[in-house]
Every structure is written in C-alpha cells, then in structure tokens.
Amino acid sequence: MTELRVLAKFVHDLNWEAVPADVKETTKNVLIDSVGVGIGACRNEQNVSIINEFTSLCSDHSVSIWGQGKKTSLFQAVFLNALEGHTLEMDDVHTRSKTHIGTVVTPAVWSVAEYEKKTGQELLLAELCGYEVTARIGMALGVSAHRNLGWHATSTAGVIGAAAACAKLLGLTENQIVYAMGMAAQEAGGTWAFLGDGASCKILNPATAACTGAKCAYLAKAGMTGPEHVLTTEDGGMLAAMSNGYDVSKVSADLGKVWEVKFMDNKPYPCCRSTHCTIDGSLYLREHEGVRPENVDHVDVFTYLVGNKQCGMSEGSIHPTKAVEAKFSTPFTVASALLYGRVTLEEFTQEKIDDPKVQELLSRVKVITDDSFTNQYPDHWGCRVVAYMKDGRTCEVTIPDASGSTDNPLTIEQLTAKIKGILLRVMDEKQADQTMEYLHNIESAEELQAV
C-alpha cells in the first residue's frame, strides 16, 4: 500500500467519535485561532483592494469572506480567506514540519463546509484530517532540506492537506481521496523568493494552496484521477523533486496514534516564528537584567541556520524599510522589544519602522548561525541573546523554545485574550464576544454562519 493511500484510508475511515477528547479540543482551538486571526486582517489595505477587485469579477455570491460582510464564489472565498489568514503573521505553526497549517486548511474547509451546508462537527473532523495530512507531508519533505532549497512548506505540504480535508467534507471514497491528494501534490509549489526584495506576496502561497486543494477535491469528485505514486515516482516524484533529505516513512509513522495537531505552536507575536525566541530573550533581558537601548553597546543573537537565513541574512532583514521586511527581521524585533518592552502589531507601522531610534538600535544587532541550535532544529527553535553593555557587563539568556510552543505553551486564557484582542481591532466588544461564543461552540452548529 502506498503512503498516500495509507493517508487516504485514515482520512476516509476517521470518525469524530473515535477522536480522543483532548484532540477534539485542540482541533477546535486551532480553528478558533485560524478564523480569529483571519478576521483580524479584514481591514488590511491590500486585502480590501484584492477582495474588491476579485468580487467585482464574480456574479456568484454564496460563500462568506471573513470579516467583510460580503460573499463571493466558493473558490474565491477559499482564496481570499486564506489571504486574510496569513496577513497578520499570527497564525499557527507546526514546527516539526515548518508549516502554517491553519492558514491553508481552515479557509478551505470553512468555505467548503459553508457552501455544502455541513455541520460544525463535520467541519472540525475535516479540519483535523487536514492538519494531520499537512504535518506528515511536511515532515516527510525534511524540514531543513526542503527549506534550504527555497521551498515554502506551508504551501507545498498544505495543498495536500487542504485537498484531503475538503475530500473528507465531500464524503469521497478512499480512491477519490487518493486522487485528490495526488493531484494536489502534482500541483504543489510556492517558494521563499519574496524575501529577496520584501515583496508583499507571501500570503499568495497559502491562498493558492488552499484554493488548489479545494479544487482538487472537487475534481476527484467529478471523476478526474490523480497519481497515487506522486510522492515517490521516479519521474516527477514530489519528495525527490523538492528535497534532498526526505523520508517517506514519516508520512504514515504512528498515524492515528500520535496526533500532530497536538504539536502546533501558537504565535504570540505578529512576525516570523523564527524571531520569537529572540523576542522572548530580549524581553527577558529588558525585564530581568535592566537592559535598555541607551546602555547597550551591541547585541549578538545566536540561532539556527534557517532562522538566520530567513530573518538575519537578507538585505530586508538587516535594513528593514517596510512591514513585510520588519516581520522577517531579527534585528528589528530585538530593537522593538528593547525599546518598547513589547512586540505587537503597532510596532510594525511605517512610523515605528522609520523611527531613527529603532533604525539606530537594530544596526547594532548581529545574527549568527550557531550549530548547537541548528542541530536541535526543527524539534526546538531556540536561540541565545547576548547584550554587551557599555559599562563592560555582558547579559545573556538562552531560550530553548519560544513562548507559544508545545514545550512552552500559552494558556487557554492567553489564547482567548489573543484572539479577542485581534477581533477588537476590527469590531466592537459586543460583536467580538458574540464571535468568540459562536466559535467556541462551533461543534454544535447545524450550519455555518458568516463571521
């Protein structure tokens, strides 16, 4: 039996009653996080412009766009909701596969469930299937090897998870689920090229993956077949084409015994996850060692190779001039943490980015690859922050796991506060409370309503 078919059989056979209670609760929490973060981006200027442009091209208005108070066609809704889901850079991360699963799977299953008039419980079951498939494909690709070739695993693995999740919602047969995932793997793509010049199109990767995954499920339903051997076939096999360090056995290892949805990081800061351990370290030094910009000579950050590659090596990381660069800049996030004692959405405004105090301080931050952290990655995304003081002191802290990780998790209260705080940016408190209540009781919904 191929690894893809093992996944398909798992997706086909899984029923909600067989899911452990803690996994059910975690699945609902990741859905709440993904939808809440997506709604929070509904007023983003670029998103509003794209939504207005796309909806003007469409006469079908059957599926809601998060936070917009308007509807569009099914596949447009999947695409546009996924754009919103990744905009704030606060969506979840499966560190063992380096995938932002929620921003691909959740928009796909939510929009299809709304269109197909599925229940909240059916939505959650499909969500769980999408998380498990995405995580396992991402792990099989080999996190460092896949990333170091320039691929964006959120998209390359996520498209297969979205296809599996939507296929589950549509009640497809085992063969049809194989075909849907096979087609999705054949269409997988998305790279990190946007980092080179700070382009704003990173969110296009998960949006395209979510939309393509949903389409592949409907194609399989309509009778199109996909390649079952797509992961390992000699001519065009996905794993060999996208990685020089893949391990196909990870696709099905402990499937149904180890639930990968339990290993999701929840991001407390609105920027690349690879900056989060650095932010934690900088905030610790500020609070516990009294480190302040005026008494710092320079700061060295030691971290894993991928973290440095994404957030410390590019021109945009070293000299950020706009938000998309600042969100992938370890120097910028260190400067913000030391200056303001926080790193929130407000710190990524153009005014803060242009602030001479920020720019001067970030110029004194250097990011260094440390093999000790690289060797622990992706199981641990750690770093060491060393502040060299003007009076000759050295203050340092090691952060093995960033806040919000499975080894250093946020509490349920912190998660709730995070999402409600995001919602309050775009709606009043009554609306935020109603939205939170609806999402927290989503398993009881007979039919999805617009959020």
Quick synopsis:
This protein folds into 2 domains: 3-268 and 419-444, Orthogonal Bundle (2-methylcitrate dehydratase PrpD), CATH 1.10.4100; 273-399, 60s Ribosomal Protein L30, Chain: A, CATH 3.30.1330. It contains 22 helices and 8 strands. It has helices at 3-13, 21-39, 45-56, 74-87, 102-116, 120-141, 143-148, 153-156, 158-169, 174-186, 204-222, 238-242, 276-288, 305-311, 315-318, 323-326, 330-340, 350-354, 356-362, 371-374, 412-423, 429-440; strands at 63-64, 71-72, 93-94, 264-265, 296-303, 365-369, 383-389, 394-399.
Helix share of residues? Answer: 40-55%
Structural class by helix and strand composition: alpha+beta
Task: Give the domain tally.
Answer: 2
The largest beta-sheet arranges its strands as 6-5-7-8
Q: Can you tell me the overall shape?
A: globular
CATH architecture of the largest domain: Orthogonal Bundle
Q: Could you give the order of the helices and strands?
A: HHHEEHEHHHHHHHHEHEHHHHHHEHEEHH
Main beta-sheet annotation: 4 strands, mixed
CATH C-level category of the largest domain: Mainly Alpha
Low-confidence stretches: none
Family: Belongs to the PrpD family.
InterPro entries: MmgE/PrpD_sf, MmgE/PrpD_sf_1, MmgE/PrpD_sf_2, MmgE_PrpD, MmgE_PrpD_C, MmgE_PrpD_N
Domain MmgE/PrpD C-terminal: 269-436
Domain MmgE/PrpD N-terminal: 7-248
